[in-house]
């Protein structure tokens, strides 16, 4: 088996908008010792730009939808041409197509990460019997499946994925980026128009129904003088803005749009997630269902007290790992009461708890490399690829359609919904 530094790996992901899985991929690649290329099936968004800035080759396959079966032979040829030792897939559609393509291309080592599997949904969309059956069928084509939390691992095993094939590699953060700085706090509040002494509640995530940010808007609206900073974008943004107006709190509800999870904009004018966390007094995650809860860990790294409905990253551990985090119910009244208590106690910063060290990204990268070793050691000798004469996908855009390509007879590949095109700040 090759030394890990000599391994050539391809990461296949559904899209590269601003989301938790996408940003996690970028962070992990900064800690990988081997050459890694990235192929995105759709939406080469802001994370693609960031990866390229990091020196990573990014290719856009130009997939047109969940049932664009012409993408499969294009993906097979790309993997075969690249002579990759390992293929790592991320997000539902990429896992279904990528594992099958890797098998057809003769790549023996295939790993998939399950980033966003809930009890009744996957990547924020309802789970159907067909989606689940196809997921399980494609899972058997890989060598290993990575779960981002013990909660997700238990769900996979409950589905019937053998426990020996499931490996927990938690999401990670670069904690130093979130270290609290009083000067950053003052500057960020000034740039976002917040009074220096205002009580500021914060939230980060995609503005989709499952995140339940409407509950957070209602709770802050019920607290005169409190402000809400909400970073993220999505289909619920207009509705949240209308709700704030109906409640007479539009001047205190600040919908900030997408923000870079790694730092401020290149020109320094737009605060990123670390600076926004510095400006907050308490962080709230009202989502009923999460696969990990990365935004909560980042808030704890920034020294914020946290209120959360569910967060496997915290809930799977002893309470002493995250003393600043408090689990609450789903009701608006309970959230209002909890926020009022923080408001009356006054702003306070906490030391980063032990859980922050547990979820260091370098530690997660080392655990992932152990999974790679297992997959590579079990892989058969690679086949010698045959001649390829068709053009490769354009690294700067979509691949040219291949009218001569024909998918396998009878193959249908449904997905959990439309492409994950609506980006947010975090998953």
TrEMBL record:
InterPro entries noted in UniProt: Glyco_trans_1, Glyco_trans_4-like_N
Biased composition (Low complexity): 395-410
Keyword Cytoplasm annotated: no
Keywords assigned by UniProt, alphabetized: Glycosyltransferase, Transferase
Glycosyl transferase family domain sequence ranges: 185-311
Domain Glycosyltransferase subfamily 4-like N-terminal: start-end pairs: 18-174
UniProt name for this protein: D-inositol 3-phosphate glycosyltransferase
């Amino acid at each position: 088996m090759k030394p890990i530094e000599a391994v050539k790996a391809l990461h296949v992901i559904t899209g590269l908008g601003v989301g938790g899985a996408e940003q996690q991929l970028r962070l992990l690649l900064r800690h990988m010792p081997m050459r890694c290329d990235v192929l995105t099936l759709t939406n080469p968004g802001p994370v693609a730009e960031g990866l390229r800035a990091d020196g990573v080759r990014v290719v856009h396959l130009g997939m047109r939808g969940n049932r664009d079966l012409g993408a499969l032979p294009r993906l097979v040829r790309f993997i075969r041409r690249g002579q990759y030792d390992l293929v790592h897939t991320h997000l539902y559609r990429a896992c279904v197509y990528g594992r099958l393509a890797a098998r057809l291309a003769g790549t023996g080592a295939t790993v998939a990460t399950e980033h966003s599997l809930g009890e009744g949904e996957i990547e924020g969309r309802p789970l159907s019997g067909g989606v689940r059956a196809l997921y399980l069928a494609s899972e058997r084509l890989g060598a290993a499946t990575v779960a981002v939390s013990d909660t997700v691992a238990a769900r996979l095993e409950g589905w019937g994925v053998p426990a020996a094939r499931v490996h927990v590699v938690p999401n990670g953060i670069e904690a130093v980026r979130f270290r609290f700085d009083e000067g950053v706090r003052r500057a960020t509040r000034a740039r976002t128009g917040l009074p220096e002494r205002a009580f500021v509640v914060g939230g980060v995530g995609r503005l989709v129904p499952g995140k339940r940010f409407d509950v957070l808007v209602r709770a802050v609206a019920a607290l005169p003088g409190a402000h809400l900073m909400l970073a993220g974008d999505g289909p619920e943004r207009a509705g949240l803005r209308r709700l704030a107006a109906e409640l007479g709190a539009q001047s205190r509800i600040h919908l900030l749009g997408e923000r870079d999870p790694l730092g401020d904009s290149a020109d320094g004018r737009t605060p990123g997630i670390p600076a926004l966390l510095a400006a907050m007094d308490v962080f709230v995650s009202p989502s009923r269902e999460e696969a990990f809860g990365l935004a909560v860990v980042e808030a704890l790294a920034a020294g914020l007290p946290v209120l959360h409905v569910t967060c496997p990253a915290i809930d799977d551990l002893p309470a002493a790992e995250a003393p600043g985090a408090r689990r609450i119910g789903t009701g608006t009244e309970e959230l209002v009461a909890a926020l009022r208590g923080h408001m009356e106690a006054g702003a306070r910063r906490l030391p980063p708890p032990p859980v922050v060290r547990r979820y260091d990204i370098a530690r997660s990268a080392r655990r992932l490399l152990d999974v790679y070793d297992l997959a590579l050691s079990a892989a058969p000798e690679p086949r010698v690829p045959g001649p390829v004469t068709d053009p490769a996908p354009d690294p700067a855009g979509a691949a040219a359609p291949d009218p001569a390509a024909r998918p396998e007879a009878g193959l249908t590949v449904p997905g959990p919904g439309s492409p994950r095109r609506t980006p947010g700040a975090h998953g």
